[in-house]
Amino acid sequence: MQRSILKIDVNNELDVVLAYKRAMQLSERLGMQQANQTKFATAVSEICRNVIEYVGNGTIQYSLTEVSGYKYLEALVTDRGRGIGNLELILARTDYNNNGSRGTGIINSKKLVDLFEIESDSERGTRVRLGKRLSQTGPTVTYHALEKWVEEFNHESDISPYAEIKRQNMQLLEVLEQLRMRNLEAEQQLQEIRRLNTQLQQSNHDVSQLLEEREKKNHMLQEINQSLDAFAHTVSHDLRAPLQNINGITTALEACLEAGQFEEANFVLPMLRQQTQKMDRLITGILAYSLAGHHNLPKKALDLQVLLHQVISSLNVPASFVIEVQDDLPVLYTQEVYLYQVFSNLIGNAIKYHDRPEQAHLQVSYTLGSDWLYFTVIDNGPGVAPELQQQIFDMYETGQSFPQADSSGLGLSIVRKIIEEKGGKVWVESEGRGSRFSFTWPKAELIQEGL
């Protein structure tokens, strides 16, 4: 859709001023913003001035048009000149600096409007179509309103001298170009600031992560140091006791031999052997505890059915002690020594601390969870008091009120250390008689059947 408004013949600079003024008046009455009014009128005057300078005369036709659902104020500037021979080169160039070079007006006008079309050849001359988009909320313009506008324009007083208007237009163009350059510089600076802010935020995030990681490691080191201090103190104390006993028994044995009391010496010798065995068990437990959690231990395909048979065979199980092992235990790809230690300590403790071996019963089973394997070792022994169910996993805590000569006090602490190294948990449940020891193992190490 296109509705013509008015037409102006462009023959001199005064007509260029008139074209500028009509562009300003029409854009204002059509509800265009002030900045867009100036841009449209400036683009019109630039093209009209090109007509005067390079051809001598032409026409400009103002119209209302609609393109793709949007309304535009359009100015069609035509001349009957010889055309622009290097038009494609002019449109392709981007290095104009408003220095008066040929084609500057075309480039500047193209930048100021929303629609720009130009056609030029030696036979029909040049046609330039300039369009500025109107607001969707602008006033509705009827045919009679357009006629009234044209009548008002015809009765308008004479235009002021064109020389002054031309000077003002040139100043305005210069100001607009300066503003454009400043806007470009400001945009570049803003982009640089955004980039630096992004880098700063990333750096702050990285620093925060490093500080958080350092804090965690410092906390871990403090816990490790405290554990080492307690471990060293306890080990030195517990190793000193059997050594002192061995020293005392050796002194007594020497005295018996010197006095020729061989029967007395034969009575003392088993006591010496018992103390050395106790010390050996303690040292073995300390080594097992120190090895628990080493990540460089090799993995292998491990059939838990076979492993449990090996563990039970290695333990001193009384003939009256009944042990039931679930038939469908899984196959894992993991460290054999870890699970051997865990099951050996849990089953060994159930045997060691059972107060009624003639009625003893032990069950080993597992269930499959979404992310973990859940293993349980259940016995019908004396149980674990509620207040001791957390302490028994600490070093040298057995949770028993009666001494065990063959206990190192490290078994459950070794179990907990191994399980926690694998990311799992271990706990005990006991109410009255019987205990249920449970622990979790990563499901990721499960070897699926058929693979």
UniProtKB/TrEMBL annotation:
Coiled-coil region(s): 162-227
Pfam families: HATPase_c, HATPase_c_2
Catalytic activity from the UniProt record: ATP + protein L-histidine = ADP + protein N-phospho-L-histidine
Superkingdom of origin organism: Bacteria
InterPro entries: BphY/WalK/GraS-like (IPR050351), HATPase_C_sf (IPR036890), HATPase_dom (IPR003594), His_kinase_dom (IPR005467), HisK_dim/P_dom (IPR003661), HisK_dim/P_sf (IPR036097), Sig_transdc_His_kin-like_C (IPR004358)
Keyword Membrane: no
Organism: Pontibacter korlensis
The protein's name: histidine kinase
Alphabetized UniProt keyword annotations: Coiled coil, Kinase, Phosphoprotein, Transferase
Domain Histidine kinase: start-end pairs: 234-445
GO biological process: osmosensory signaling via phosphorelay pathway
Organism placement in taxonomy: Bacteria, Pseudomonadati, Bacteroidota, Cytophagia, Cytophagales
Entry's EC annotation: 2.7.13.3
Gene Ontology molecular function: phosphorelay response regulator activity; phosphorelay sensor kinase activity; protein kinase activator activity
Broadest EC class assigned to this enzyme: transferase
